[in-house]
C-alpha cells in the first residue's frame, strides 16, 4: 500500500526527449516504474529507446492517456512552458501531475492552480520545484534516487528535496511507504496537510515524518490539522533555525518576516500539537527511531 503512487501506476513523461526528462525516465524505468510513454508535440509518432525499452512519444497528454491508460504525468519542461504543460495535463484529467521544474514564475503556478480548481481539481498536482514522489519497491515518479531505502511503514512529506533523501537514508532500516516532496515554492499544488491526511488514512503507514522550512505558515496550519485529525505519531524538522530574518534562503518561499515564519515559531506550534521536533535531521531520525523501536 502507498499513497497516490503504486506499482500499478502508469507514468508518462512530458518532456521525455529533453536532457532531464530523458535522464530521469531511464532512472525511473530502472526503479521498476511503469513508464508507458512520453509527450513532445514536435516528436509525436517517434519512439525513444532506453536500454532496449522503446517508449512511444505522443502529441498530447490526452493522446497518451487514450493509448496507454496513463494515470500519472511527470513534467520535465523548461519554466517558460511549464504552465502550458500543466494546463494540458489538467485538461486531460490525468489523476496525478508531478511538476519537477524549478524556477516556474509564481504567477504561472497561481494561474495553473486556479485553473485546476475551476476544473474541479480532478488532477492532483505535486510541485512545482519538487523531487517528486516515490513508493519504494513499487514506483518512482520524479528524481528521488530509488536505492536510498526499502519499502516500509513510514510516510514522509517534505518541502526540501535534499532533506527528503537524508531522512529516507537515515531511517532506511525501517523503510518507507511513500515519500512525497511537495516543493518549496510559495504556491504548490499539494500541501503538508494533503499528505498528512493521506498517510493518516493509509493502513500501511504507521508513522509520519514531516519536513518543513522557514517562511509562510504552512507548518503552523499543518500543526492545527495534526492536532485535530492525526492519531499516528509524527516527528518533524524545520530547516532554517539559523537563518537571519528578512533574507531569502534557498527556496522561493523560505523568507521570514519579523516573528512570523521562523523555525522556532513553527517548532512551538508543532510541539503544541504533540509532534516531536528535532533540531537537526539526524536528531529527527532518532526521534522516529525511538518511536518505532
TrEMBL record:
Organism: Actinoplanes campanulatus
HAMAP family (UniProt xref): Succ_CoA_alpha
Residues engaged in binding substrate: 165
Name this protein carries in UniProt: Succinate--CoA ligase [ADP-forming] subunit alpha
Listed SMART domains: CoA_binding (SM00881)
Catalytic site positions: 251 (tele-phosphohistidine intermediate)
Lineage per the UniProt record: Bacteria, Bacillati, Actinomycetota, Actinomycetes, Micromonosporales
Chain residues that bind CoA: 17-20, 43, 100-102
Pathway info: Carbohydrate metabolism; tricarboxylic acid cycle; succinate from succinyl-CoA (ligase route): step 1/1
GO term, biological process aspect, one: tricarboxylic acid cycle
One GO cellular component term noted in the UniProt record for this chain: succinate-CoA ligase complex (ADP-forming)
Domain of life according to the entry: Bacteria
Entry annotated with the keyword Nucleotide-binding: yes
Gene name, Swiss-Prot/TrEMBL: sucD
InterPro entries reported in the protein's UniProt record: Cit_synth/succinyl-CoA_lig_AS, Citrt_syn/SCS-alpha_CS, CoA-bd, CoA_lig_alpha, NAD(P)-bd_dom_sf, SUCC_ACL_C, Succinyl-CoA_synth-like
Gene3D superfamilies found in the cross-reference section: NAD(P)-binding Rossmann-like Domain, Succinyl-CoA synthetase domains
Residues annotated as domain CoA-binding: 4-104
NCBIfam families: PRK05678.1, sucCoAalpha
GO molecular function: nucleotide binding; succinate-CoA ligase (ADP-forming) activity; succinate-CoA ligase (GDP-forming) activity
Family affiliation: Belongs to the succinate/malate CoA ligase alpha subunit family.
Pfam families: CoA_binding (PF02629), Ligase_CoA (PF00549)
